Every structure is written in C-alpha cells, then in structure tokens.
Amino acid sequence: MDLAQLMEACNQYAKPAGFRPAYGTAGFRAEASLLHSTVFRCGLLMAARALKTGAATGLVVTASHNPVTDNGVKLVEPTGYMLDQSWEAWADKLADAEDAEALCAIIRDLYQKEDIPYGSGVVMLAHDTRPSAEELIKAAGSGVKALGGLPIVCGLLTTPQLHWMVRHCNNSLKHTESCYYEEIATGFSHLVHSCKAKRQVLTVDCANGVGAEKLKALAERLSGKLDVTLRSTGEGGLNDGCGADYVQKERRFPAGMEDCQNGARCASLDGDADRLVYFQRLPGGQLQLLDGDRIAVLAALLIRDILDRLSHDAASPSVGIVQTAYANGASSQYIREQLRLETAVTATGVKHLHAAAERFDIGIYFEANGHGTVLFRPALIERLHKLGDSQEAAKDLLALLGMVNQAVGDALSGILLVEAALRRRQWGLNDWAQLYTDLPSRQLKVKVKDRSVVTTADAETRAVTPEGLQSRINESVRGAPSGRAFVRPSGTEDVVRVYAEAQTQQAADKLAQQVARHVH
Ligand code: NG1
Ligand code: ZN
Fold first, then answer.
1. Ligand 2 mean position to 244 CA, how many Å?
2. Number of other residues whose CB lies within 10 A of the CB of residue 104
3. Distance from C-alpha of 315 to C-alpha of 296, rounded to nearest angstrom
4. Domain 184-290 adopts which CATH fold?
5. Across residues 450-457, what is the average pLDDT?
6. The Alpha-D-phosphohexomutase alpha/beta/alpha domain covers which part of the protein (predicted)?
7. Residue 476: what pLDDT?
8. Do the domains at 184-290 and 293-408+428-433 have one common CATH topology?
9. Neighbours of ion ligand 2 (CB under 5 A)
10. What is the predicted pLDDT for the residue at 251?
11. Domain ranges of the chain
12. Cα angle vertex 405, ends 402, 408, to 5°?
C-alpha cells in the first residue's frame, strides 16, 4: 500500500460537512450528491475484504426502490451474499471518518486488526440506471485502486446479477451476464418442458429501472416459453408511482397499468430488480396483491411436489421458510398449520433471513415486499447429483437450483420460479390466491427528529426504547380484533415504520394510526 498515494486519493473524496453515513439494512443510502466519499471508502473496504478472503468481492451502486435522486451502495461477499455482518462496523468507521488523515488511520487499524495481507484485491462493480451512477462508480473504482486493488467494471446490471457473478467467479464458473441468462433459463425450460398448462401473458411493471432491459434479454433466451409484456421500461421516473415497493406498500396499480384487465396476470419489480410482487385486478376493481409471503408458499408447494417423487435411503431433506415480522399473519399460520413446515422469524433485511435459511437443507426466505430466494445446502446438492443419474425428481431439484439465484433474492429468477410453479400445477392466480386470505394490514411511515431513539428486540416485534412506547402499543393492540402491531426504525430511509394488521381493514388502519401517534 502506497500511503502517500492513498492519502492523496482520500483527499479527493472529502466527506460533506455534517454528513453522518451509517450502514443500514442493506448498505448505505442517501441523497446522491452526498455519497461520493462514502462510495470511495466502500471501494477501499471491498478491496481490503477481497485481500482478507483471498477472493473477488463486489459493489453495486443502487438505491433500489428509493427515489431517483437518492443513491446508495450494496456490498457483496465472495460467496455472493451481502457483506459479512462482522465487517459492517468497519464500513461505518470508514464512511464516517472526518478527513483523509482519520481515514488512513482507520485503514491502518483495519490492516492490523484483521491481519490483511498485502496484495491486489479484485472488486467487481455494477450500477443501476440512476444518472448519478457514473460518478459514483468512478469513486468506487478510485477507492479500490487507492488500496492497490483491481476494479472490474461490469456496467449496468441488476443487483442480483452482480451477486450471482461474484459467486460464480469465485467458484471458477462462467460468470458473464449471458451465462446468467443461460443458467436460469435452462433450469426453467427443464421444469416446464412437459407442462400442458395454457401459457398466460405476464405484464411486468419494471419500475422504469434496470429490470426492463434485463428481463427483455432473459425472455429472448426463453424462445417463447415465457410471454412477457413490459411496462414502465424507462419512459417515466424511476420507482415513481410504480415498482414493487409502491404496489406492495400503497396497494395501488402502478403507473401505466391502472387500466389492466380483470384477472390479467401482472407483476412489479423494484428499481434494481431484486424484489418481485404479483398482482391482479379483482372483478370489483380492487387490487389483489400476491406478495413475498405468497411466493414463499408457492415455492414450498413446488418443492414439496418434487420431493414427494424423490426416493432416497437417507432422511428426507429438511425444508423451512424464513420470514420477518412484516409477514402477513395468515401466511405464517398457513405455513405452520397447512404446510406443516418449520418457520423462523428474523429481523428485517435479507442478511438476517439468508443466514437463518442456511440452517435447512432447502431454506426458503422471503420478505413480504418480495425480496427472497430458495437456498440449497451443499451436502444436499451433492446427494442430488448422485441421485440425478437415475431419478427425474433429483433432476428437477437440480434444475430448480440452477434457476433460483443462490446468492440473493432476484426478481428475474423469481418470475421464473412463480411461473414454473403455477404452470406445473396448472394454476392461475386465483388458485394461488385462494390458499389463504391475507389479514388486512397497513404500513405507515412516521418522520421523527431522531429515528435512532426507537430500538427493538425479539426480531423487531418489541420496542425497547423509548420507555413506555411498547406498553402504549400493547394497549392499542388489545383494542383491535386479531390485532398485531410493531414499530422499527427504517435502515434505508429517515423514518420510523409502523406495521399493523387486524381482522378488518378499518381496524388495521385505525391501529396503525394509533401506533403512529404513540411514536410521535
Ligand atoms: P427498511 O427501510 O430498513 O425497512 C427496506 C425493507 C427491507 C429491505 C430493505 C433493503 C420493508 C418494510 N423494509 O428496509 O425489507 O428490503 O429496504 O432494500 O419493506
Ligand atoms: Zn431492490
């Protein structure tokens, strides 16, 4: 490491006065013009992480479902997962360092405490469609180079594509963008090749983000096996009145799809295409949401159908579903009582869900907002390869493994998962929707002076501070039939989030309003 060079580079990316970046639910997010120093420092961090692990790491410049004027950075481990939580404190320290001198001191400390070898770390860089991406990618590259590392510029990609590429690269597998399409499309083609179900056109709201171009590329490789019509492909503002977060939180039809036909099969991606929700218009005109909870249940049914045909002499693979407190109570009840599957509840953020899903042979994790995937334990994969020579069911599971992104939740691979599951059961959206009825729920955001005064415990279901808040919430919940409510500070926006569900929409709305008042 050339200290003089490092100092000079650090000086070029000064932190704006008064800016206090913090690593949140999925990395750093802020108004884009504030972020140059943060992204530069994340470049430093990921170059060091690459040296520590002896493998390539990744960095995506994106603010996901947030407005186009924001940006952010998501950090990728060599496994393709999100940055190891033990390193989040280093990310915070680096991002928050006041000046170049303080920054260099933290780097020295990092090298010493983590015993980082000297050398050149490889960091793969990608970005979404935000206009601020170009400058921020430059800042990330400068950070990597300032530590003597090698930035590999992968360009415009969905977040899950970059995660997939990092994982494949480190497993010495082909990892180009076209290999990504090839692999997930091959899995899908295998799973649907003998399906007799009539194909349905899927209309996809692409949030005016990167998903539009990438889903088009995927559909082209499926040679007619997936009929998609794309909406919000870039003509409007990113995530502006459209996208998975808008549809899931507002329960409204996205821009350009207000006039969709009753019963037409529709889906929404978010701005960086790692979230997916389905929806349809009911005969009464209202929107019916098929969210991440429902995708998890559908995935479990697909897996169960295949496992029922698998004969093996060892114990049956364990299958479990991981959710957060935002999961609709009706979905959790269905999973426990009807599917009789093990469930786990973790704090918000896929880093938590992912870790819990790894405890099963097949771990399904989804946030209600549509971010999730299905993980296969390596020992099971090995067994399946052996069984695959003689058994169709093992081949089906291996096809599923190839189709579903093993690194992180992925809306494109999620579409293939949902479409394959529906087609194999010859189901339409109504069959899927009829599995259970969601409890009415409401989410609100509350702006407060300092959201960090709200702290929580028990997978965010209980407010620890401010004192007295939880007992006021309990009081309100007692007054609502089948009521449940919780609050937590957002890790991506400057708000406190309120969630409430109850037997009727009116009761859920009232409960959410009451709890929001307790937060103020
Ligand atoms: P925050 O802002 O911490 O609630 C949101 C989502 C998370 C996750 C992250 C990352 C909700 C309620 N929260 O986090 O689930 O997806 O963004 O993008 O949807
Ligand atoms: Zn996203």
1. 9
2. 16
3. 23
4. Alpha-D-Glucose-1,6-Bisphosphate; Chain A, domain 3 (3.40.120)
5. 94
6. 47-97, 98-170
7. 97
8. yes
9. 64, 270, 272, 274
10. 93
11. 3-156, 184-290, 293-408+428-433, 441-519
12. 160
If you average pLDDT over residues 415-423, what whole number do you get?
97
CA distance 236 to 451: 32
> Considering every ligand atom, which ligand is closest to the CA of 270?
2
C-alpha pair distances (Å), 201 with each of 34, 229, 307, 434: 42, 7, 29, 21
Q: Does domain 441-519 have CATH number 3.30.310.50?
A: yes
Cα(490) to centroid of ligand 1, in Å?
A: 7
Give the whole-angstrom CA distance, residue 372 versus residue 257. Answer: 25
Q: Whose CA is nearest to atom 1 of ligand 1?
A: 490
- 132 CB less than 6 Å from ligand 1? no
Residue 509: its pLDDT value, please?
A: 97
Q: Other CB atoms closer than 10 Å to residue 344's CB: what's the count?
A: 19
Q: How do residues 293-348 score in pLDDT, each as one tens digit?
A: 999 999 999 999 999 999 877 788 999 999 999 999 999 999 999 999 999 999 99
Task: Dump pLDDT digits (tens) for 40-70.
Answer: 999 999 999 999 999 999 999 999 999 999 9
- Ligand 1 contact, 63 CB (< 6 A): no
Residue 209 near residue 243, CB atoms below 8 Å = yes
Ligand 1, atom 4: closest residue by C-alpha: 490
- From residue 21, alpha-carbon distances to 31, 37, 70 in Å are 11, 10, 13
Atom of ligand 1 nearest to the CA of 369: 19
The kind and range of the H/E element at 231 are strand 228-231
73 CA distance to ligand 2 middle (Å): 11
Domain at 293-408+428-433: CATH architecture: 3-Layer(aba) Sandwich (3.40)
- Enumerate residues 6+ apart whose C-beta is below 8 A from 135: 36
Ligand nearest 274 Cα, by number? 2
Domain 3-156 has CATH 3.40.120.10: yes
Catalytic residue list: 64
Residues annotated within a binding site: 64, 270, 272, 274, 367-369, 488-492, 497
Read off the pLDDT of residues 177-216 as tens digits, 9 standing for 90 and up.
Answer: 999 999 999 999 999 998 887 778 999 999 999 999 999 9
| Global confidence as pTM | 0.96
Q: What is the pLDDT of residues 465-479, one digit of tens each?
A: 999 999 999 999 999
What is the whole-number distance in angstroms between the Cα of residue 275 and the centre of ligand 2?
Answer: 6
Residue 36 has pLDDT above 80, yes or no: yes
Q: Is the CB of 265 under 6 A from ligand 1?
A: no
Q: Does position 25 have pLDDT exceeding 90, yes or no?
A: no
Q: Is the CB of 64 under 6 A from ligand 1?
A: yes
Mean pLDDT of the chain: 95
Q: Please give the Cα distance from 452 to 158 (Å, whole number).
A: 31
User: Residues marked as binding for substrate?
Assistant: 367-369, 488-492, 497
Task: Tell me the C-alpha distance between 356 and 36, whole Å.
Answer: 34
Cβ of 369 closer than 6 Å to ligand 1, yes or no, is yes
Residue, of 316 and 132, whose pLDDT is higher = 132
Is 492 close to ligand 1, i.e. is its CB under 6 Å away?
A: yes
**pLDDT value, residue 5:** 86
- Ligand minimally distant from the alpha carbon of residue 324: 1
